[in-house]
Amino acid sequence: MGQVSDLYSRKVAAGQLRADHAQQQVLPHMDHVLDQMQAAPAPKRSAWRAFLGVGSPDPAPAAKGLYLWGGVGRGKSMLMDLMAEAAGQIPCRRVHFHEFMQEIQAGLNEARKRGQQDTVRPVAEGVARQTRLLCFDEMQITDIADAMIVGRLFQVLFDQGVTVVTTSNRVPEDLYKHGLNRQLFLPFIGLIRERMEVVCLDSQTDYRQNRQGGPVWFAPADAQAKAALDGAWSDLTGDATPEPLTIAVQGRQVTLPAHAGRVARSSFWDLCGRPLGPADYLAVARAVDVLLIDGVPRLSASNYNEARRFVTLIDALYEAKVRLIASAADEPEQLYNEGEGSFEFERTASRLREMQDAAWGRRADAAPPEEAESATA
């Protein structure tokens, strides 16, 4: 196991990263987490279990984790990648928080089917058997189902010796802000403060905004934009005749109106006007390499549900490195400027801007040195 700061320095020296003072200020906190984990005593069985010769070892105490928060595009995701890489032999999982919670909810459903009264504990213990270090990207709580179980879930994970490191755009006290039954969620904020060091990444540089994109975002969504998407479809598919793509997701079907090979095309309303969720969008992201979306409208309280689905869709596409080509009512930063959800959309707008770059989505080991700043996204 190495240190995150050493790995960061090597990548800077190799031209793969651009040194950033604010990021460098965070590195000792990340190193400290790994140092604690390395120094932790090995798991052992209790005296009674040892005497009887039964039972699994008692979990070692969890090292104090890290909650890294700050504005969009400051390099938090890149730092999380380095944390997972530096973990070495420590059983570690690096996962987007949205995806992790989808897995947890699926596990809870299975536990209910088995008639278990305490559904959270066995699911959390299953995670702990495989992982000592959980590295989450983009912790945010918007779903009441997640909000009601995260406190209990993370308490069991900590008790089982799992250390958590996460990024977020918000200080802990702003998680699930104005959410339904938020008073039941508040103990989770206290748990974060108790079991994780809260650190702000206060960089003045937004690396995503500093990059120049290619012609993949067309605004406004007029006839000229439609013609541009038609041309992109023709170029990408060789004028193939489009056919519907139906994807099976947890016993139901999600259909994209047009696809050829691993290129698909859909209107905003086909994707976000229907009651689809994270699992559906993750399945879409796994099924295609390029997605064309027609007619992204202005977003506001009047189409709040559709806007939330669009945010979730972009998260899934971003994590899977799916290339996005779209027509929209305006530039990403101007799509959702006021009302509930506009703050959260700043991250989505930043990702949409980053995804416009011609080099976005390339494998890190294939990126030439002059494009190294993309690793800071």
TrEMBL record:
What organism is this sequence from?
Answer: Paracoccus liaowanqingii
Entry protein name: Cell division protein ZapE
Q: Where is the composition biased (Acidic residues)?
A: 368-377
| PANTHER family associated with the record | AFG1-LIKE ATPASE (PTHR12169:SF6), ATPASE N2B (PTHR12169)
Instruction: Quote the InterPro entries the UniProt record gives.
Output: ATPase_AFG1-like (IPR005654), P-loop_NTPase (IPR027417)
Key words of the record = ATP-binding, Cell cycle, Cell division, Nucleotide-binding
One Gene Ontology CC term in the entry:
cytoplasm
SUPFAM superfamilies from the UniProt entry:
P-loop containing nucleoside triphosphate hydrolases
One GO biological process term = cell division
> Region labeled Disordered — which residues?
358-377
Sample GO molecular function, one term: ATP hydrolysis activity
Instruction: Extract the Pfam families matched here.
Output: AFG1_ATPase
